[in-house]
Amino acid sequence: MSVASGNEKDNISMEVLTNIIIKLEKLQEDRIQAVKTTSIQQWNITLWSQHKNTKKQFNSSDYALWFLKGNNSHLGKFNRKWFGLYRVQYVLPNNIVLLVTVEKFETSPILVM
Asked: Which of its termini does the chain have fewer beta carbons within 10 Å around, N or C?
């Protein structure tokens, strides 16, 4: 059985500490790379959703169909879910439109938000 001297013990403990520091630095580099990759992916998703979710800007005299939001009743496969054909008579701020039927001017036009 060999007995290690104090100098050898110090060298071994320094090697262990050096290996631990190297591993911790590698973990830190991996974490930084993961944060960069995640932020790039989030930015790409944001750009994609901004492009995909663009709202239609209506102009006066455009034609439109109207879908009643919040209609929870199941209408069935062959029933109409879209109403129209309507014409945009006025465009108000925030893309709120005033719709009138194409066939005749309704006395109570539809205001769609």
From this structure: N
Contact 81, 75 (CB under 8 A): yes
CB atoms within 10 A of CB 97: 23
Contact of 83 with 93, CB cutoff 8 Å: no
- Dump the DSSP string for 68-93: -TT--S---SSS--EEEEEEEEEEEG
Give pLDDT tens digits for 79-90: 667 777 888 888
Helix or strand run (H / E) with residue 111: strand 110-112
The residue-averaged pLDDT of 61-73 equals 74
